[in-house]
Specification:
By secondary structure, this protein is α+β, with helices and mostly antiparallel strands. It is built from three helices and seven strands, in the order βαββββββαα. It has a seven-stranded antiparallel sheet. It is globular. The chain starts with a strand and ends with a helix.
Amino acid sequence: MGIYQFKKTQEINKPIQDVWHFISNPCNLKLITPDYMGFNITSSYLPSNMYAGMIICYKVSPLLGIKMNWVTEITHVKEGKYFVDEQRVGPYKIWHHEHILQASKKGTIMTDIVSYKPPFGIIGSLTNPIIKKKLKDIFDYRFKALAEIF
């Protein structure tokens, strides 16, 4: 019944301001999420920039096409540097996702660090290899999508 981490780093050949402008707009999340996730934002109003305290509601189909609600809160924002979203309602016991930007010679290094605890106690822990593979697939998709966008 552990807490696990997943980390993905990507270098994007654009300045931080451009990358920040894209990733800090919650409406762009659908553009970098695989279609098979059935991802749809259900919040009735979302501004184009995230802020601490923002609540975002989604419908997702992470397993077997079963739709479920996912609610996240943006808990920390440092303009142009990072933001953190945490699950309030959804498939995980714990979900803490850090989005970190750093300047590089080529543009921007973006690092995602997801700390999570699967549901269902020991059963969830036993299925973590499947969960970790799914996260890898989702973030590999994001990597490719962001490479195409930028």
